[in-house]
Amino acid sequence: MIGTAGNGVRIAITGIGAYAPERVLTNSELATIVDTTDEWIVERTGIRERRIAAPDQAMTDLALPAAQQALEQAGVPADAVDYIVVATVTPDAMFPTTSALLADMLGARDAAAYDLLAGCTGFMYAIAQAYAMVASGLSERALVVGGDILSKIIDWRDRATCVLFGDGAGAVVLERVDHGGFLGFELGADGAGGKHLTLPAGGSRLPASAETVAQEQHFVRMDGREVFKFATRVLVSSAEKVLAECGRSVEDVDVYIPHQANVRIIDHAAKKLGVPRDRVVVNVDRYGNTSSGSIPLALADAAAEGRLEPGSLVLMTGMGAGLTWGSALIEWSALGGKPQQAPERIG
Ligand code: COA
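# coenzyme A complex -> structure
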């Protein structure tokens, strides 16, 4: 699926928030749990440490502070938000949805709220949906959260996966603006490759049972080499497609935010695309792969470092389980906004 923003409608990100749990797990500490070394992890992935949620922290506990920060920056009161989507593969529970719980915690009364599952690409799918909702006029102000607590579905004895992932969440507010905003999106999926990155049990194919638990089928299973090949391919092809569709070239890109899975994947994509390293946002060294939290956390870092100037062209590309991928191209506009009156509600 590919398309450009049209009809003179401009929708932009007006607030960004992020939250990562306090607990830092270093590579050296991991080496005391599984047969690995700091050197191996750094050389093969670029990851040095990751954040791990506390046993009593669930997805809403990460989403709430990120969402509050994004709303505050946008100057949008929670009850002025009419649409909330949380992209995650680790919801508090399958239902009630994490987004509905979050709406209640925020005080976003009567907002439409649902969760979205698209693996690590969830945030990209969610901002495309929120864009469409606001562009169509169905929503006035949308809140999008991307985040995961993969530490709770990782096999901590499997060194091939447990070194890669971390926990975290980010949030953005989408509204109509006068200047800049989203220029286009490209999204896709390849279910034939889905077998390379799975959570086998707990769904309708393999409902949770004593047997699935005994067989440890509630943990992430991954063929790292296949996912690596897929990732390096789609990060490049998706970015090229969205740039071409929007009539822009890679030289126009000021800030490139790829999914933070592995620094080797990021370097490969940046080199193949021709994006200079100083335009690439990298924080995988500090957070590991936070799945749906990865791109909004990197976006928040870029904003905190003053790298998002109004007028800058920002390219984001995610990829992950499904297999799925997605890109967005944005002409950056100023964050923040005038404090807005909550729309009057009846009843
Ligand atoms: N520490 C030490 N050795 C490890 C290890 C670890 N944590 N994990 C794997 N190894 C070993 C393997 O067992 C293998 O040993 P062998 O040669 O004796 O069999 C060796 O290291 C090389 O393994 P390989 O799988 O070829 O490594 P790699 O260079 O492909 O890197 C990944 C492995 C997982 C880092 C890499 O494939 C990758 O990043 N894939 C993409 C994963 C991803 O991004 N998933 C999420 C997408 S959203």
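# post-check
Residues 224-245 form the longest helix (22 residues).
Confidence is low (pLDDT under 50) at residues 338-347.
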